[in-house]
Specification:
It is built from eight helices and two strands. It is mainly alpha-helical. Strand 1 and strand 2 form a beta hairpin. The radius of gyration is 18 Å and the shape is globular. The protein binds retinal.
């Protein structure tokens, strides 16, 4: 276990933001009776709850390790990947449920997502050579590209069955997801993981915190904002 440096400021902001998001979603979902709507709340509450725990673990140094690559010491927050391993499939599940995607599509998306995160953590922890880390990054990014391709296809297919407002909500969430998720491999390669050191740990941690808060609390907020739209979504076949 290593000790976090000045970047712990961002990790504490992340902890607080995720915890407040969790409390907000719990409060908003409290009186919701409809089972289908409750499902969106349950999934989204778990997403921010898991992230609060992961951020707390990182802020207090539990989620941090140091690896040495070619004589260079890198601080790696491995707890991010534990967080993402559970929360990114849940985010996809939220969208898949909204689009009433088939089980095959949902499993494909989750499968690719798990490959993306697992190969990402391998890339972050590999010590034998910087080049090998980039290869793992490439595999992980390829999984992301396939994932986004299938996601766009599934949502396009769903669009014909959706009412206007549900389609608008699905498109907005899809666009948010694409823009935010594509930023992760970029921050990774520019940050300490990528070993080129363009983005020091302090700024990398800030960037991931902003991305995580937007992709979880922001996404959940947009999804759960309108009960009327969620109601329409649960009624369509
Ligand atoms: C990694 C490793 C390098 C290559 C790729 C990655 C993708 C990560 C993504 C993470 C998404 C996280 C979210 C968190 C929510 O709070 C693992 C950085 C492609 C897409 C949405």
């Amino acid at each position: 276990m290593a000790t976090p440096g000045s970047e712990s400021l961002w990790l504490w902001i992340g902890t607080l933001g995720m915890a407040l998001g969790t409390l907000f979603f719990i409060a908003r979902g409290w009186g919701v009776e409809d089972e289908e709507q409750r499902r969106f709340y349950i999934i989204t509450i778990f997403i921010t709850a898991i992230a609060s725990i992961a951020y707390f673990a990182m802020a207090t140094g539990f989620g941090l390790t140091e690896v040495s690559v070619g004589g260079q010491a890198l601080d790696i927050y491995w707890a991010r990947y534990a967080d993402w391993l559970f929360t990114t499939p849940l985010l996809l599940l939220d969208l898949a449920l909204l689009a009433k995607a088939t089980r095959n599509t949902t499993y494909t998306l989750v499968g690719l997502d798990v490959i993306m995160i697992v190969t990402g953590v391998v890339g972050a922890l590999v010590t034998s050579s910087p080049a090998l880390r980039i290869v793992w990054w490439g595999i992980s990014t390829a999984a992301l590209v396939f994932l986004l391709y299938f996601l766009v296809g599934a949502l396009r297919e769903a669009a014909s069955r959706q009412t206007d407002s549900v389609r608008r909500l699905t498109t907005r969430l899809r666009n948010m997801l694409i823009v935010l998720w594509v930023a992760y491999p970029v921050v990774w390669i520019l940050g300490t993981e990528g070993t080129i050191g363009v983005l020091p740990l302090y700024w990398e941690t800030a960037a991931f915190m902003v991305l995580d808060l937007t992709a979880k609390v922001g996404f959940g907020f947009v999804l759960l904002r309108s009960h009327t739209v969620l109601n329409e979504a649960s009624q369509q076949t």
